[in-house]
């Protein structure tokens, strides 16, 4: 996969912060749009602004989507949940990593959460891992576009283009499996969740075709 | 602004005791996620120290077949690569 630029990583961090703000325990394409807007310094943000999308409006729109049940409602974080049982998650994480090493803990996390044919005693996610990224298709499309354009790394513009492409492309059937359904259910996502960036941009009155073209034009500018 | 929403969530978690199924059940699910990882860590550690499946199973309170079925196979690739 093509590497992410520093700017794109910053946008992803901001998107995580936005997800946190809504009490969402995952990162979806809808948060990516908010992250781009909150960063505000990329060509992608300029394009969104030109289409009349502001951070405030987008936040309000996502709030309405949550009320309509298209995305998850606010949920307490794992640290808070475990805190209510009297478990200090940070202390526990530190102690386990000290005792076994970060590499072994990482291995155990993968082992406990990986998809298995029989699903024997396994969990869709664990508090010892960051909230899951539900943007595999966005990253895939962004990487493909980067390859087409001959770009060395994926920037915020390509991420936004990935979001737009993701909205227009149906998810492959392999994405609809039991493990993923379990994961979505454990995050409080509605059945058949495929990212809510489409409804979000539709609520904001954005024409996807024109947005895609504008991002393409912006990318042409960046390339030259 | 980011702090307001997350502190609201904290208050929700703090104000409602585990009497509330919403919080109580989610807390149990989080705990289960924790337990699975810790179990994998401990079993892997015990195997690396030369414990038999029977010994591990006795401590976990399950049959040796159960723990073998769950943890044997290609999973211990992590340690093998290290050696």
Structural features, described:
The complex is a heterodimer of chains A (224) and B (83). Chain A has 224 residues and is mainly alpha-helical. Chain A has a single domain (3-75, 131-223), classed as Clp, N-terminal domain (Double Clp-N motif, Orthogonal Bundle). Helices cover 62% and strands 2% of the residues of chain A. Chain A has twelve helices and two strands; from the N terminus they run βααααααααβαααα. Chain A has helices spanning 6-21, 29-39, 43-50, 55-68, 78-84, 89-100, 102-113, 136-149, 156-168, 178-186, 197-203, 208-223, and strands at 3-4, 153-154. Chain A has a two-stranded parallel ribbon with strand order 1-2. Chain B has 83 residues and is an all-alpha fold. Chain B has one domain. Helices cover 77% and strands 0% of the residues of chain B. Chain B is built from five helices and no strands. In chain B, helix 3 (53-60) crosses helix 4 (64-71). The radius of gyration of chain B is 19 Å and the shape is elongated. Chain B starts with a helix and ends with a helix. The model of chain B has no long low-confidence stretch (mean pLDDT 76). At the A-B interface, helix 1, helix 5, helix 6 and helix 7 of A face helix 1 and helix 2 of B.
Structure summarized in a few sentences:
Chain A is 62% helix and 2% strand.
